[in-house]
Prior knowledge:
Blueprint: E1 3-6, E2 11-14, E3 18-19, H1 32-44, E4 49-51, H2 60-69, E5 76-81, H3 94-108, E6 115-119, H4 129-140, E7 147-150, H5 154-161, E8 166-172, H6 184-191, E9 194-198, H7 221-224, H8 242-253, H9 262-271, E10 278-279, H10 286-294, H11 303-321
Parallel strand pairs: 3-4, 4-5, 5-6, 6-7, 7-8, 8-9, 9-10
Antiparallel strand pairs: 1-2
Helix pairs in contact: 1-10, 2-3, 5-6, 8-11
Amino acid sequence: xxxxxxxxxxxxxxxxxxxxxxxxxDWGQVEERDALAVLEAxxxxxxxxxxxxxxxxxxxxxxxxxxxxxxxxxxxxxTKMGRRMPQVxxxxxxxxxxxxxxxxxxxxxxxxxxxxxxxxPPTPVFSSDAVFDALDTLVEEERIAAYxxxxxxxxxxxxxxxxxxxxTVQIILNAFRQKPLERVLPAxxxxxxxxxxxxxLASGLLSGRYRHDTAFGPxxxxxxxxxxxxxxxxxxxxxxxxxxxxxxxxxxxALALPGATPAQTALRWIIQQPGVSTVIPGAxxxxxxxxxxxxxxxxPLPEDTLAGIRDLYDRRIRxxxxxxx
Length: 325
């Protein structure tokens, strides 16, 4: 699989990674043996980049990855911190950072974390010199090798990119969330900051498998956060009204490459956006992990397909989400 260089990290990562929120919680129950099988299948396709967080199953995702790392050294693991306490600026302190990263190091079984990302903190945090000084201290103390941010909005991303120590920005980017193409990706490319594209399938909408009457379990965020009840609504279906998303996804499916699924086409669209370092789809089965990895081998989408995706976004999606994030 293609490996892309992230300038400020001075590392290469697989263009398709694996998001592991679903291995911890909020997507229905996944047994540990099944989670390990997903990790194995992803690595077999060439995935070298895993993304997790300390709150995914209250550390369960990190611990499963840590077990997997014992037999698969050399993988790049990015984790996130900051959501185990109320998300208020005064909680983003060096003492808390040390405690959070020490817990993640224990969960993952490593002495130094490859990459730690602030996990969608409140907007004032991005402008705090003290916060970024504390992150620099974690690097100096060798608790972490590098740091980045996970953001909700493009403005947050641009503020973080301007910080000289920011190695990566993780942001929602998919065919239903195209605003980052305008300013964020060009700014990151110019600064040498990596872009980690999350929610690449709009919580599964872009797979084309959902219908208006599709039901999700009560422990699935696609049920309990559909209107932003638990966290930012943009994390669920990319903030798109579900019924609108189902209709738009039906149109998107008609644009899929011959021989490729709609989900693979959606991943390929992200892969070929200038400035993207890696895209991190989740997977609950080995078959899904293998299909995601195969998207890296697809040819670039032709111009007529790209034009069709732009038109679909402009007609159905832009009025709903473009101004919000």
